[in-house]
Design goal:
This protein is an alpha+beta fold. It contains six helices and 15 strands. A ten-stranded mixed beta sheet has the order 4-3-2-1-6-5-14-13-15-11. A three-stranded antiparallel beta sheet has the order 8-7-12. A two-stranded antiparallel ribbon has the order 9-10. 34% of the residues are buried.
Length: 245
């Protein structure tokens, strides 16, 4: 796995970080790192790290939601994204404080159970969170007569999958349709503005949001990503809500 993100594609234009991490080469201009942050990186609200980011070291960024949605459309993700965005708006509006408290209690219990289950899974197989290939191999070779130990999105408060973590169970597929799970407040699990890295399993993907209730800057996470603190912008310690598939 390629640990360093060395390229960012901003609205279709590629920028490459030098080996000494002091310069960025663009299609029309070379930048000093700080100059690049000020000119290009400061106002980008949409990010995407697809599966191939693990190996090609590229991450994508977009200055408008329209351009972000075009990228999603090219990957057959747009219809699902729009559908779930509308559902989030609808059902958030309809919740009373009492209903939200009920949801909070249910979700806290499920997240605590999933986190404990994941940690026991790692302990049983003598694995560390960063051993993604080994984890996936065990999941794929699990005896189908028993319940499969599926785990979806794991958030860590240190880079490179270190420190404290939580496991957010994903949704499910039924009749060719995906149904994600919504997590409106990461503060419910003591993880608001803490996530610095993430891992996924079982073909999951997720959207992280910088604000509660799926608002603010958003980040498509489709791979195991060792850090959110990119050299040209910053999403680390920013996630406040999530939708997990």
């Amino acid at each position: 796995m390629k640990k360093d993100i060395s390229k960012v594609i901003i609205d279709g234009e590629e920028y490459t970080l030098s080996e000494d991490k002091k310069h960025i080469k663009g299609p029309e201009k070379d930048y000093e790192a700080e100059e690049f942050k000020k000119e290009k990186g400061k106002n980008i609200p949409f990010f995407a790290a697809p599966k191939e980011s693990e190996t090609d070291g590229k991450i994508y960024a977009f200055t408008t939601e329209e351009k972000f949605e075009k990228w999603l459309e090219d990957r057959d993700l747009l219809d699902q994204y729009k559908k779930d965005k509308e559902l989030a708006k609808k059902f958030t509006k309809e919740k009373t404080p009492e209903e939200l408290e009920k949801i909070k209690k249910q979700q806290v219990k499920k997240v605590e159970e999933a986190t404990e289950k994941y940690n026991k899974f790692l302990e049983k197989h003598k694995l560390k969170p960063e051993q993604h290939a080994e984890i996936q191999k065990i999941l794929e070779n699990h005896d189908p007569h028993y319940e499969r130990p599926t785990h979806s999105l794991h958030l860590f408060d240190y880079t490179w999958w270190g420190g404290a973590s939580i496991t957010l169970p994903g949704g499910y597929s039924y009749c060719y349709t995906r149904y994600p799970k919504y997590y409106p407040h990461l503060s419910w699990y003591g993880f608001d503005n803490r996530a610095e890295s993430a891992s996924l399993s079982c073909g999951s993907y997720a959207y992280l949001y910088s604000d509660t209730y799926y608002k603010g800057a958003r980040f498509y996470v489709g791979c195991n990503l060792g850090f959110f603190g990119f050299w040209w912008n910053y999403f680390g310690n920013s996630a406040s809500s999530a939708i997990v598939y």
